[in-house]
C-alpha cells in the first residue's frame, strides 16, 4: 500500500505513526494535493492528504477512516480496542486531536492572509478552542502514562501529532508550562522510534 502525504500535515503524521507502530509495510510518498500533477488530487475526490492507496488501487481517505482500517491489519499492537466502549473512548480522543489540528490549520491559513484581510475573531475563536481542548486533555490525563488503558493507543498517537503541529505552527504557545503533565507524557511518546522516524 502507498500513503500519500506531506511532512507538515498533522493528519498525515497520525496515520504514519499508526503504520509505523504496527510495522505495516508501506511506501510513503510525499505528494501535495495542490502541486501540478499531484497523485492525491487524482485519487482522492477531496484532493487531500492523507490518502491511502491499497494494492488494488482502492483509495482510502480521511484520516479517521484510514486509522480504523489500518488497525484491523494486525494485532501488534492493537491501537483501537475491540471492546465497544473502550473503542469509543479512543476514537473520541482522536476526534479531539483532529479538532485541535482543524483549529490550528484555520489559524495558520488566516495568518498567511495579508494583514489587512485577517479577522481577529478567527484567531480568537480557534485559539480558544485549542486552549480548551488542551486543558481538557491535560486534566483527563492526570498522572497517567497513557490517555486510555495500560498501553499506547491511537489516542496517544493522535494527540502527539496535534501537539507537534502546534509546536511547528504556534511555537509561541507555551502549552508545556500550562500543562506540565502533558509535557512529561509528550516527551515519552516523542522519544518513540515511530515519532522520531516522522521527524526526518
Ligand atoms: N479531515 C481530513 C483533513 C485532511 C486535510 O485537511 N489535509 C490537508 C493537509 S493538512 C490537505 O490535504 N489540504 C488540501 C491541500 O493542501 O491542498 C483528515 O482527517 O484526513
Would you summarize the structure shown here?
The protein is of the alpha+beta class. The protein is built from nine helices and four strands; from the N terminus they run E-H-E-H-E-E-H-H-H-H-H-H-H. The longest helix has 28 residues, at 84-111.
Uncertain runs: none
Oligomer: single chain
- The CATH C-level name of the largest domain is Mainly Alpha
Along the chain, the helix and strand elements come as: EHEHEEHHHHHHH
Summarize the main sheet.
4 strands, mixed
Beta-strand percent range: 5-15%
Q: Order of strands across the biggest sheet?
A: 2-1-3-4
User: Could you tell me how far the N terminus lies from the C terminus, measured between alpha carbons in angstroms?
Assistant: 21 Å
Global geometry: globular
Q: Judging by the overall fold, what is the CATH architecture of the largest domain?
A: Up-down Bundle
Q: Helicity level, as a percent range?
A: 55-70%
- Domains, number: 2
Number of strands: 4
Structural class: alpha+beta
CATH topology of the largest domain: Glutathione S-transferase Yfyf (Class Pi), Chain A, domain 2
Bound molecules: glutathione
The total of helices stands at 9
Amino acid at each position: 500500500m502507498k500513503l500519500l502525504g506531506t511532512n507538515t500535515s498533522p493528519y498525515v503524521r497520525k496515520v504514519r505513526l499508526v503504520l509505523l507502530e504496527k510495522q505495516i509495510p508501506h511506501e510513503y510518498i510525499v505528494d501535495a494535493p495542490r502541486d501540478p500533477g499531484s497523485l492525491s488530487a487524482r485519487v482522492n475526490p477531496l484532493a487531500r492528504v492523507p490518502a491511502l492507496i491499497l494494492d488494488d488501487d482502492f483509495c482510502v481517505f480521511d484520516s479517521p477512516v484510514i486509522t480504523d482500517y489500518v488497525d484491523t491489519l494486525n494485532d501488534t499492537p492493537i491501537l483501537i480496542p475491540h471492546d465497544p466502549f473502550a473503542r469509543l473512548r479512543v476514537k473520541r480522543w482522536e476526534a479531539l486531536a483532529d479538532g485541535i489540528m482543524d483549529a490550528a490549520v484555520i489559524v495558520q491559513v488566516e495568518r498567511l492572509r495579508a494583514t489587512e484581510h485577517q479577522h481577529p475573531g478567527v484567531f480568537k475563536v480557534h485559539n480558544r478552542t485549542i486552549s480548551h481542548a488542551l486543558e481538557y486533555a491535560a486534566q483527563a490525563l492526570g498522572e497517567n502514562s497513557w490517555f486510555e488503558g495500560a498501553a499506547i493507543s491511537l489516542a496517544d498517537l493522535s494527540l502527539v501529532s496535534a501537539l507537534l503541529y502546534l509546536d511547528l505552527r504556534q511555537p509561541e504557545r507555551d502549552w508545556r508550562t500550562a500543562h506540565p503533565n502533558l509535557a512529561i507524557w509528550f516527551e515519552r511518546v516523542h522519544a518513540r522510534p515511530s515519532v522520531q522516524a516522522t521527524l526526518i
